[in-house]
Amino acid sequence: MKQVKKMFRFTPLCLVLVSVFSSATRALDKNIRYKVLEMDPKGNLYLHRTALLCKNDIIKRLVSGKYHLVESSPIGLSKDSSALNCKHLKTKVPSATSGVYWIDPDAGSHSNAFQAYCDQQTDGGGWTLVWSYTFTAYSSFTSSANAVTPRPAWTARGANTRVSATVPLSETHYEAMNFALWRSIGKEFLIKSNINNWIACKDGSGSLVMQKAGSLYCKLVKQVSKQCAGAVPKSIVMDSSGPYLNSANLYYFFDGNTGGNWPTHDPCGKNQVNQVKGVVNPHGNIFVR
Ligand SMILES: [Ca+2]
Ligand SMILES: [Ca+2]
Fold first, then answer.
1. Phi and psi torsions of 90, nearest 5°
2. PROSITE patterns of this UniProt entry (predicted)?
3. Which listed site, 6, 19, 119, 288, has its alpha carbon 20 to 30 Å from 28?
């Protein structure tokens, strides 16, 4: 008990204060909790001035066991305990599984925190899901009617599929987080798809989240196709239908136009019809960290 610091100065005034607080609390909501004890990283204990009880009374209650333990909600599991993003959550709770968590990318007040899906396993985890898409005409993949849908609110003047600003909560919940928020989460991106290989890319002179054409440093994360093992994109280009990633030629094309082009998903990076065919529920996902 010697470690209890004098943050709460025990003086004769205490009794007066207690009686004032007591009468004040009668009008207060019974659900309001007052902090009594706090501990700093060195293990020093502090008593709160607003504890409503004098030091000796608090000590008496601690010794006699007349107290309740309050568990604060683990990070990411409530709006009030939001993580910044899935990468932040991964560093705080390395054992956390993939799933929906509360995040607050701009920090500060959690009033604008929201729920998002985190992939905490692939390539070290820490990935925040920003887009889940499917196709308008998967079975006639190279028809101009085929496009990715919905699409993020990125600049693509020639695109006409639905624009989404709803946070996707799973890999088959086809929505896109407000594009302006992507860059507040991170720069590195992961693309997962059940018709093309999974890749993770870091910025070179180009950037997806900044919508900037240029080079990328991509690596293969999972070979989904049996073709062209090892090919990865090397650059990003901003087309009026949406961005595409280039290897020798197009590898991923996020074509959002149902009147022209087709949404290439070619593991060989040659802009050919090499996507995996006959897949039920064909889709793709972009994550950022
Ligand atoms: Ca905030
Ligand atoms: Ca098209």
1. -65, -40
2. FIBRINOGEN_C_2
3. 6
What are 244's strand-pairing partners?
A: 237, 253
**Surrounding residues of ion ligand 2, Cβ less than 5 A:** 144, 147, 255, 257, 261
151 CA distance to ligand 2 centroid (A)? 12
Euclidean distance between CA atoms 263 and 144, whole angstroms: 9
Q: What percent of the chain has pLDDT over 90?
A: 74
Mean pLDDT, the chain, whole residue set:
89
H helix and E strand count, the chain: 4, 13
Ligand closest in space to the Cα of 148:
2
- Closest by alpha carbon to 196, among 228, 237, 165? 228
Report the distance separating Cα 153 and Cα 162, nearest Å. Answer: 9
SS3 content of the chain, % helix, strand, coil (to 5): 20, 25, 55
Q: Of the bound ligands, which one is closest to the alpha carbon of residue 181? A: 1
Closest Cα to residue 239, out of 260, 265, 220, 218? 260
pLDDT tens for 40-72 read 778 888 888 777 788 888 889 889 988 887 666
* CA 76 to centroid of ligand 1, rounded, Å: 13
